[in-house]
C-alpha cells in the first residue's frame, strides 16, 4: 500500500511539473515572444485595395497587425473613415471585399484590421473580448487592449497620410459585433463617431458584479464611464432571421444562455438591459436597436444595410 501511494505521489508531482512547464511556455509564447507579420515600410495608402503592417502597440514591438484598406479614387482628407471588424474567422480581407462597393458609392475610406491568431478556435480573449485579460486570467495594460490598437491604427493612418479627421465610424459583425459594443462600453473616450454592432453572439451587460465578458466584474469601469458610453452613438443591428444558433460559433455557457437562445434574442435582451439602466439613472441614452428584415447571420448583407445608419 505504501508503495502504491509513493507511485501515486510521484505521478502527481510529475503531472504538476508538466502543467507548470506547459503554462510557462504557453505564457512566454503568447505574451512575451514577438508575433505577427513583418512590419511594412511606411507609405501613403494607395487608391483601391491596399494593406500595411504596423506595430499594434505604442509601448513595445511584441505584436504587429495587418490592416487591409480600400480607398476610393475621390476620397480626400476629412471624408468619412470606417473601421470594419471581422468575425470569428478573422477574415478581414473578406470583410473588406464586402465593403468595396459601399465605399465607392459613399466615398468612404475603409480600414479592416486583421487580428490573426493561430489558436482563434480556442481563445477569444485577444480579439472580441478586447485583450483586457490574458488566457490565464491576469490583466493586460490598457496600452495592449485590442480597442487601443484601433486608436493606434487611426493615429498611424492620420500621420502617414496627412489626414486631419478627428473621428471614425466602426462596424462589426458576429465576433466583430462583440468587439464593437465592448469597445463602446469599455473605451468611451475612443474617437468613434457612430458604431454598429451587428449580430453579436453574446454581450457584455453593464452589471458590475457579473464576471467579464458577460458583465463588468474586474474591469474598473465606473458609473461615470458608463454614462459616457451611453452618450455615444451605437446601433445594435440584428438580422430578423438570425435565430439559428447552429450558424457560426455560438456560445452556450450558462451565462450566455441567460441572454437568449439565439443571437436575435440576445441582441434584444442586451438593448433592453442597457436602456432600463439608463432610464433608471436618468442618463442620456443614444443607443438604438433595429432589425433587418429577411437577413440572417450574413456579414455581407448586414454590411449593405449598415451604411444607411452611418450616412444619415
From TrEMBL:
Keywords: Membrane, Transmembrane, Transmembrane helix. The chain crosses the membrane at residues 12-32. InterPro entries: AB_hydrolase_fold. This is Alpha/beta hydrolase. It comes from Zunongwangia atlantica 22II14-10F7.
